[in-house]
Amino acid sequence: MFRPSGYLARVMRIDPVQRQSVISLASTLGLTAIGFLSTMFFTHTVGLSIMGAYYLFVAYFSVFNLIGDGGFGGAAVKRISEGEDQNAFFTAFVFLRVMLLSVSVSFLFIAQPYLTDLTSSGVFPWLVIALVVSVFTNIASNSVYGTGKVGVNQIGGLIDTLIRIVVQVAAVVLGYGVAGLAGGFVAGLLASGLFNFRFLELSPARFRRSHIQSLFAFSFWTFLGAGGYLVFAYADTILIGHFLTEADVGIYRVALQLTSIATFITIALRTTLYPKVSYWGKQHDLSSVENALARAFTYSLLLAVPVVAGGWLLGERLLYFFYTASATAGAAALSILLLVQVAHVFMFLQTMCLNALDRPKDSFKVTAIAVAANIGLNVLLIPAFGIVGASAATLVTMVLNAALANRALSRSIRVRIEPGAVGHIVLAAVVMGAVVMAYSFVIPLTNVFVVLGAVALGGLVYILVLLKIDRGIHDELKELTVNLGVPWPDAL
After folding, report:
1. Which of 60, 337, 343, 408 is most buried, by the most CB atoms less than 10 A from its CB?
2. Helix, strand, coil: what percent of the chain each, to 5?
3. Separation between Cα atoms, residue 106 and residue 8, nearest integer Å
């Protein structure tokens, strides 16, 4: 008989990093699955042009929210995670975050005459509301995350997505279009903030100038580094909206969303490892950082490599059946964006380590070079090659960022991959690709169920081959599965 208390005790015996990684991965999977289904629904219901307008709203929100955050969110996580003067750092963060809200909103109103995409679609008021709500949500979520409650933070993200999509679906069905999508975005933010606030154990306390200075010392470079990452995330979207049409924005973003499957594990591991690496760095336990990073590379590539192989073979068909025939115009861009996600694995994890090891200045420097190249290449390539040019610009600069981050991080720790495990991953993906190609020759990919069958077959072949040839991955996954109370198949 299933006993929740016994099951919970079993789960709590799992290594903390593994346990929190599983929670984070489960949350990420849930978020992405819901996000995929909702995007498919919205694309079929309101069309790619409305979706493009919504993606522009999200892009501009991210830009002005970064101004409102000022890098203090990351600084608060870092300082709170170090375990000293947590309440004082929390209170100082609240004070600074509220002050910066006025700066962010002021910049927004100054820029309003130039934001014609937002004003013409009618979502400008929603952007102001979203920025106000985000202050409360970011304070709650960053403070909870800084105290090591990674699982709570991830569940908060899941609640954000669930509430956002429920409200968006209802609003779209009622005919509110892009305004309904923006309103759902705000509702999700608020719900997530309320949930995280429920688990917030920090309390207001007197803070000194030294606490402000400590946050400033970290936040300045974190802000600049986050700005660089934001360029990678949204500069292409904004520039596509400037040079092309909202429909092109929609096509590009749905292709990018499809490739994001490749980074499920990377995002989960980054979220879990940041507080751990921060603590290990504070304790000068760099060997633990090196081992954790190498293993994180392996498990990130465990998903990214087969997704790239499968995406090259089935991407056009998936765009057609999931997002409408118009979305297949993004097939060429999708092929390039799949490689972007592999480079993203190394960039994301290495810059995370730089920040966690209290080197945000170096993180910014390597990102700044790539950012400048990204903007320049986007301006040159988008008018000439459309969304394919945007994809190429992102790939080149993501590889550059990963290489520079590797060089900077190597000054502090030994950055390495596990060649045996990575080789096994590539070999298993090659076998999977051969099987999927044979399947598509025998059975024409003429309907969504046949395509999903190809995906399922490829995934099964990949897992079986990998578990057969890599004993280390096999044993770790078996141990984790058994500890979660899930029977391990005898055939494996």
Report:
1. 337
2. 85, 0, 15
3. 48
Q: Which amino acid is at 319?
A: L
Judge whether 42 and 254 are in contact, CB under 8 Å.
no
Query: What's the burial of 213, exposed, middle or buried (CB within 10 Å: 0-12/13-18/19+)?
Result: exposed
Q: How many CB atoms sit inside 10 A of residue 173's CB?
A: 11
- For helices 177-198 and 150-173, what crossing angle results, to 10°? 150
Q: Are 339 and 395 in contact (CB under 8 A)?
A: yes
Question: How does pLDDT run across 215-256, given as a tens digit for each residue?
Answer: 777 777 767 767 777 777 788 898 998 898 889 999 999 999
Closest alpha carbon to 466 in 478, 455, 450: 478
> Residue 238's closest CA among 229, 228, 223, 248?
248
- pLDDT value at position 2? 40
What span, in angstroms and rounded, lies between the C-alpha atoms of 146 and 356? 12
What are the start-end ranges of the H helices in 283-356? 286-323, 331-356
Q: Which of 463, 465, 436 is nearest to 450 (CA)?
A: 436
Instruction: For residues 119 and 333, give the distance between their C-alpha atoms in angstroms, rounded to a whole number.
Output: 29
Amino acid sitting at position 180: G
- What does 191-244 look like in DSSP terms, one character per residue? HHHHHHHHT---------HHHHHHHHHHHHHHHHHHHHHHHHHHHHHHHHHHHS
Neighbours of 203 (CB within 10 A): 9
Extract the residue ranges of the chain whose pLDDT is less than 70.
Answer: 1-28, 30, 222, 225, 479-488, 490-492
Burial profile 72-87: b = 16 or more Cβ within 10 angstroms, e = fewer:
bbbbbbbbbbbeebbe
Nearest alpha carbon to residue 45 among 161, 158, 181, 159: 181
| Tokens representing residue 424 in the block | 């096994």
Q: How is residue 145 written in tokens? A: 């995350």
**DSSP class per residue in 104-115:** HHHHHHHHGGG-
Task: In whole angstroms, give the CA distance from residue 245 to residue 383.
Answer: 12
Cβ–Cβ under 8 Å, residues 402 and 259: no
